[in-house]
């Protein structure tokens, strides 16, 4: 199964993962998958992003680390630091200037699963922890101005799993959605006017893979959330940046029904 499409900055191709591997789909015909050589990176998951110039794909591997891979394939470079055997990095965003990656750091404290927003230089270096609490945070992605990181969280919920959308400048946290559905993976458009996201039915716990009534929604500065499509999907449908560079389209995955 293929998941998590990224749209290339030149608008010519998509990147998807499948079976621990990475592939490119040329949009001119969309019929041939071109595998990207990961250069020795362990099997990857569906959290990957493209650098703003399209030259590098940053991936999250099943060993818990982040790697930089040339988009043309070839020798890889580990970006993330060792933060203990139980710490896992899940990548979701890159800053507009390409200098910084935003990821979710997953760890366990006293048998409690903790997920916070972190950043790290794309060239490697010291991590910076952006959120530090026991709320379930995920989907950290930079906005086009580089000032805000958008993410989903249960921080204002009184019910387990009831995630909503937020953004943070590092000092301020603002809530963006306020409804009964479970909202995940905010993706700001390149022109900054819209946020596309995945909305699960009320009561959904986490972001499972096979769910009916998954909705792709659009949020603008002056409108209520608008449903664009309802599908059978979930985890991997649209959990990484997927907007076209001109902000007119975004890519997503709908799962086959049985």
Describe the structure in brief.
0% of the residues lie in helices and 46% in strands.
CATH superfamily: TolB, C-terminal domain
Mean pLDDT: 94
Q: Give the strand content.
A: over 45%
Give the number of DSSP strands: 20
Q: What's the alpha carbon Rg, rounded to whole Å?
A: 17 Å
Q: Approximately how much helix is present in the residues?
A: under 10%
The first-to-last residue Cα distance is 14 Å
SSE sequence, one letter per element: EEEEEEEEEEEEEEEEEEEE
- Largest sheet entry: 4 strands, antiparallel
Strand order of the main beta sheet, please?
Answer: 1-2-3-4
Query: In DSSP terms, counting alpha (H) and pi (I) runs of 4 or more, how many helices?
Result: 0
Instruction: Please indicate the count of domains.
Output: 1
Low-confidence stretches: none
CATH topology name = Neuraminidase
The CATH architecture is 6 Propeller
Shape: globular
The first-level CATH class name: Mainly Beta
Structural class: mainly beta
InterPro entries: 6-blade_b-propeller_TolB-like, WD40
Pfam families: PD40
Family: Belongs to the TolB family.
Protein name: PD40 domain-containing protein
């Amino acid at each position: 199964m293929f998941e998590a499409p990224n749209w290339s900055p030149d608008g010519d191709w998509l990147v998807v993962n499948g079976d621990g591997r990475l592939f490119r789909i040329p949009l001119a015909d969309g019929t041939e998958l071109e595998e990207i050589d990961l250069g020795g990176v362990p099997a990857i998951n569906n959290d990957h992003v493209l650098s703003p110039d399209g030259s590098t794909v940053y991936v999250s591997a099943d060993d818990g680390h982040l790697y930089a891979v040339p988009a043309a394939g070839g020798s890889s470079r580990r970006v993330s630091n060792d933060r203990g055997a139980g710490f896992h990095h899940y990548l979701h965003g890159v800053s507009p200037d390409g200098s910084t990656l935003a990821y979710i750091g997953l760890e366990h404290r006293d048998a409690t699963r903790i997920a916070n927003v972190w950043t790290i230089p794309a060239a490697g270096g010291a991590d910076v922890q952006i959120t530090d609490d026991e709320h379930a945070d995920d989907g950290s992605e930079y906005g086009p101005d580089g000032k805000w990181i958008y993410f989903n969280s249960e921080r204002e919920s009184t019910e387990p799993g009831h995630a909503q959308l937020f953004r943070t400048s590092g000092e301020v946290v603002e809530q963006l959605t306020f409804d009964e559905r479970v909202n995940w993976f905010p993706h700001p458009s390149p022109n900054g006017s819209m946020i596309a996201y995945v909305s699960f039915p009320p009561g959904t716990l986490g972001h499972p893979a096979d769910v009916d009534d998954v909705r792709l929604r659009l949020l603008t500065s002056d409108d209520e959330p608008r449903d664009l499509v309802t599908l059978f999907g979930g985890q991997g449908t649209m959990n990484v940046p997927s907007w076209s560079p001109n902000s007119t389209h975004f890519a997503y995955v709908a799962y086959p029904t049985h």
